[in-house]
Specification:
The chain is an alpha+beta fold. The protein has two domains: about 40 residues, no CATH class; about 250 residues, 4-Layer Sandwich (Deoxyribonuclease I, Chain A), CATH 3.60.10.10. About 35% of the residues lie in helices and about 25% in strands. It is built from eight helices and 14 strands. Strands 3-4-2-1-14-13 form a six-stranded mixed beta sheet. It has a six-stranded mixed beta sheet with strand order 5-6-7-8-12-9, covered by helices on one side. The protein is globular, with a radius of gyration of 24 Å. The termini are far apart.
């Protein structure tokens, strides 16, 4: 037998054996094939991982673009909710350039004259296929605020279909009542979507600056039946009151299925929630928010 004719896989070798010794080898080959296929199925698939990342006023500078996508690449997650994107075309181009041609950025049917700071979903098209994207504008209270982006993604590998909602609620300590009203609108949106069998993930910048906000977030989780997976995080962003730098838990993820791990990455992980007089370099060069990852 020439090298070109030699079987080059286990299944090829078994097929050759069956042909040469059909009477004896067929039952053994069938058993071997079943064991081989079973062993392949037994290999665990990587668990679902998602992230949310508010990239302040993207793009602020070429350095911010590089720093943001270096951070995203290090997360090693296939689906990322993003906020504060001023130039979605530049963002999508940078994603392909720095992450690879399979990456897609979806912002829904926004208008060209719409206010900036758009919510979006960045995903790896090798793993997921877009079903649809739509904007829910009920959270734009009194003509201001950001819409909620809803994106539905099919898993190309047969995993659960994802229904992702990207949130960016009103900022500021004086915005508690507005955020409460926005959460009430969001509750209705999520309730309607949760009736199907999709895995629902609500994530983004909730701007939860105080205890009342956290009470409202707990109410949102209870009313929607979602798991508040980031409830125990100490901080996800930094701010500078009176010549110091403090951490605050502004970014959150709510899921229809319980998650195994939620972590604030970047400087929130390496530096901590009380860096002292100066905020981390990341604050000035990339964003005042840290990316938050959730693993199932």
């Amino acid at each position: 037998m020439t090298d070109a004719a030699r079987p080059r896989s286990i299944l090829g070798l078994l097929a050759r054996l069956v042909w040469l010794r059909r009477g004896v080898a067929l039952p053994l080959a069938g058993l071997a094939i079943l064991l081989f296929v079973g062993s392949q199925r037994a290999c665990p698939e990587p668990g679902l991982r998602v992230a949310t990342f508010n990239i302040r006023n993207f793009p602020e500078s070429p350095g911010q673009i590089d720093g943001a996508f270096e951070t995203i690449k290090a997360l090693e997650v296939p689906v990322i909710a993003v906020q504060e994107i001023n130039d979605p075309v530049a963002f999508a181009a940078a994603a392909k350039r720095q992450l690879g041609k399979s990456w897609r950025a979806e912002f829904g049917p926004y208008a060209g004259t719409e206010r900036p700071l758009l919510p979006g979903v960045l995903y790896n098209g090798y793993h997921y296929e877009l079903d649809y994207a739509r904007l829910h504008r009920g959270t734009q209270t009194k003509g201001s605020g950001r819409p909620v982006l809803e994106v539905r993604l099919f898993d190309r590998n047969g995993g659960p279909t994802l229904r992702v909602f990207v949130v960016h609620l009103r900022a500021g300590g004086d915005g508690v009542e507005t955020r409460r009203a926005q959460l009430q609108v969001l509750t209705g949106i999520v309730r309607r979507s949760a009736r199907g069998g999709d895995q629902v993930i609500v994530m983004g910048d909730f701007n939860s600056t105080g205890e009342v906000d956290r009470v409202n977030l707990g109410q949102f989780a209870g009313d929607t039946g979602l798991h508040w997976t980031t409830q125990e995080l100490g901080c996800t962003a930094y701010w500078r009151p009176q010549n110091t730098c403090l951490g605050s838990a502004l970014d959150h993820v709510f899921t229809s299925r319980p998650a195994g791990e939620a972590v604030a990455r970047g400087p929130c992980e390496s530096v901590g929630c009380e860096p002292g007089e100066s905020c981390p370099v990341f604050y000035d060069q990339v964003s005042d928010h840290c990316p938050v990852t959730v693993a199932f």
